[in-house]
Amino acid sequence: MSMKHAPATQRNREPIREVLEQELSGSGTLLEIAAGTGEHAVYLSRTLQGWQWQPTDPDPEAIASIAAWREAEGAPNLKSPIQLDAAAERWPVTKADAILCVNMTHISPPAATRGLFAASGRLLGEGAPLLIYGPFLEAGVQTAASNLGFDASLKARDPAWGLREVSWLDELAAANGLERTARHAMPANNLILVYRKK
User: Fold this and answer.
1) What is the three-class DSSP state of 98?
2) Among candidates 44, 64, 66, 65, which has minimal Cα distance to 53?
3) How many CB atoms lie within 10 A of CB 108?
4) Would you state the pLDDT for residue 12?
5) What strands lie across the sheet with 98-102, from one edge to the other?
6) 165 φ, ψ (degrees, to nearest 5)
7) For the chain, how far is it from start to end, CA to CA, in angstroms?
8) DSSP-assigned beta bridge partners for residue 55
9) How far is it, in rounded angstroms, from Cα 94 to Cα 146?
10) CA-CA-CA-CA torsion sign (147, 151, 157, 160)
11) pLDDT the model gives residue 80
12) How far apart are CA 175 and CA 162, in angstroms?
């Protein structure tokens, strides 16, 4: 079995679930981008059973981990993972009723975030949400020292990585027919930003 573990998942899965329950109404297909180990997919799909949960990731090792978690603990509404690079111009998915992206924007090149917004503009119907979780930089909001240190360590690992400005995400949203409708403060100086298709 190739089940991987991300310690942060245990800490943030409940706060993420609470926001999803506020922001998601009805049912449909939720597309999870950069699903990583698959632990969020297993936990959240079990608690949001009205939704068909489609996990994706660009990394074959992550795909194997998601598949292993699904086989071991997956609910019936958790679908087989799909390999998907957010930066790609064409995605192997044509429609989604909601999109969730946890901890990707800061550990990927800007092209991945641009691709995420472009695809959200194509795939989501009117009023449907894109929910993005992670640490961000905000104008007029003091950045926690831990986040500044994290940003520096990310850039040392890869100059294309780093915490993104919320204003930049808002611009990408506007350019792709979305607008920010909510900002949820989360534990450990993270946020969930909610964008909805206009």
Assistant:
1) strand
2) 44
3) 22
4) 86
5) 82-83, 51-57, 28-33, 98-102, 129-134, 190-197, 178-186
6) -75, 130
7) 43
8) 32
9) 38
10) positive
11) 98
12) 22
Asked whether the CA dihedral 100, 105, 111, 113 is positive or negative, the reply is positive
176: left (phi over 0), alpha (psi -120 to 50) or beta: alpha
Residue 40 identity (one-letter amino acid):
H
137 burial (CB, 10 Å; 0-12 / 13-18 / 19+) is middle
Beta strand 51-57 with 28-33 is: parallel
Would you give the DSSP letter of residue 34? S
Q: Using CA atoms, how far apart are residues 134 and 146, in angstroms rounded to an integer?
A: 13
Hey, what amino acid is at 31? L
Per DSSP, the residues of 111-127 read HHHHHHHHHHHHHBPTT
Question: Is beta strand 129-134 parallel, antiparallel or unpaired with respect to 136-137?
Answer: unpaired
d(CA 56, CA 53): 10
The candidate with the shortest Cα–Cα distance to 106, out of 141, 132, 128, is 132
pLDDT of residue 66: 96
Q: Which residues contact 162 (CB under 8 A, 6 or more apart)?
A: 106, 151, 154, 155
Alpha-carbon 141 to chain mean position: 22
Reading phi first (left if > 0) and then psi (alpha if -120 to 50, else beta), residue 177 is in left
User: In the chain, which stretches have pLDDT less than 50?
Assistant: none
Measured CA distances, 167 to 139, 153, 179 (Å): 8, 22, 12
The two structure tokens encoding residue 33: 């981008």
Q: How far apart are CA 187 and CA 15, in angstroms?
A: 8
